[in-house]
Amino acid sequence: MSLEPYHPIDADAAEELIAKGVKVIDVRQPYEYGYDHIEQAVLVSIDGLYSFSQALNQLNLSKDEPLIFVCEMGQRSTAACEVAAIAGYTNIYNLSGGMNMWRYSGKMVVKGQK
After folding, report:
1. pTM (2 d.p.)
2. Scanning 19, 83, 90, 103, which has the fewest C-beta atoms within 10 Å of its C-beta?
3. CA nearest 66: which of 101, 18, 28, 33?
4. Bridge-partner residues for 110, per DSSP?
């Protein structure tokens, strides 16, 4: 049993959840997001823990709504998951390997848009 307040998932599981309407929060920097991102992803950069928590709360999401957090490799999204849990969110997923694994798995991305 995992002690983390989130569920690590692979690209296939994330794709299935996204198809069911689960929201994707991309925590990378705007230039990274602008290069490529998951089509449904919303950019909420994790520049600082407090500012990230505030920006997440400004999305007005239900605290029990499922959320997938993604970054480039999986480290920043892990921190984002932990901050989300502290902020009271309870249905949290972390895309293991981040966008790097998403691309490697051949999943679709949007390129060159913000």
Report:
1. 0.94
2. 19
3. 18
4. 37
Instruction: Answer whether 110's CB lies under 8 Å from 102's CB.
Output: no
Which domains are seen in the chain, by residue range? 7-108 (3.40.250.10)
Distance between CA 2 and CA 102 in Å, rounded? Answer: 23
**Higher per-residue confidence, 3 vs 39:** 39
Query: Which residues are designated catalytic?
Result: 71
Task: Judge whether 61 and 67 are in contact, CB under 8 Å.
Answer: yes
* Cβ contacts of 69 within 8 Å, gap of 6 or more: 6, 24, 25, 27, 77, 80, 81, 84, 92, 93, 94, 95
Residue 2 is predicted with a pLDDT of 61
